[in-house]
Fold this protein.
Amino acid sequence: MKSSLKIFGFVIVVLAFYSYVGNTVPQKITYPPESADLSADMTPDELAIAGADIVAGKGTCLGCHTVGSRDSGLRFPDLGGIATKASTRIAGMSALEYLAHSLYEPNEFIVDGFLAGMPAINRPPIGLTDDEIKAVIAYLQSLGGTPSVTLATDVGYVTEVSAIAPAPSGGATLGAGLDGPGVFTTYLCNTCHSIDSPDPLVGPSLFDVGSRLSKAEIYEAVMEPDATLAEGFPGGVMLTTLNALGFYQKVSPEELRALVNYLADQQGN
Ligand code: HEC
Ligand code: HEC
């Protein structure tokens, strides 16, 4: 009896803790940012398997892309059979060259019928290493083809260390001090939303969001993206991506306020 009371008490404390955490932080799902276990002696097939994990995890790719789905919403190219499609995309470019190009310079070439908005995956906050990108390429080669890449393969790109901005601040460091525009680019809002022009990317343009939404509505749109969907745009995408980036855990209340004020100032002129 005594011990069941103790357990009961423990359960209450745990539940109270989780509902407290649940109220302060809307979403707790995130992917560990550690690097994948890759070694030089992996065969292309082994590398492709590791690449599949990166695509589903640290790479955040599946927040936007489907693999082999017919109803992929038409906003993001489906990656099913990409190994075959890759050789037909840009005249004179081999499939391997195209895959590397589409990962390292995603906005240099926009797939016909799609909008720009793929983030730089070798920069923070996604920050895949060059080896991890090779694993991703091996995986993409396996979608409709046979992987040939190993860690020794030269895919034509090397990430410049100087190009890597510091990682976003941890939420615990209060006042780590990103301003509104800083939050907007650090958490990749800018890869899905334009702010200087009315043209939509993956999400609606925010150039006039301050004239369309109140601060409270902007706050809700950021904290609970799927509660109210902007008409004609897909749900799930923003939430999945921000979760995968750890946005909801890392952003501080001050940064959030700066972000909302910055967006409220966007009046479309
Ligand atoms: C925020 C959404 C988003 C994320 C995250 C994302 N992509 Fe993309 N991706 C896009 C969009 C939009 C396009 C089409 C525009 C373009 O060509 O750049 C695209 C294009 C591509 C293409 C070219 C497809 C084709 O049919 O030619 C490949 C390959 C690709 N992405 C792979 C990836 C991989 C691998 C990851 C993860 C490491 C990833 N993407 C993460 C949005 C995203
Ligand atoms: C992977 C793409 C993606 C990312 C990253 C993203 N969003 Fe979104 N966002 C969307 C989509 C799609 C919608 C439309 C569906 C909806 O309303 O949730 C949207 C909707 C919104 C809206 C409502 C706009 C309106 O006109 O009603 C706001 C505000 C917004 N996002 C702000 C942000 C901010 C701030 C960030 C960064 C912290 C961000 N988004 C990151 C895709 C994205």
Remarks:
- Residues 55, 59-61, 63-65, 76-77, 82, 85, 89, 99, 102-103, 106-107, 110-111, 114-119, 121, 136, 140, 191-192, 202, 241 surround heme C (ligand 1) (CB under 6 Å).
- Residues 65 and 76 are 6 Å apart (CA to CA).
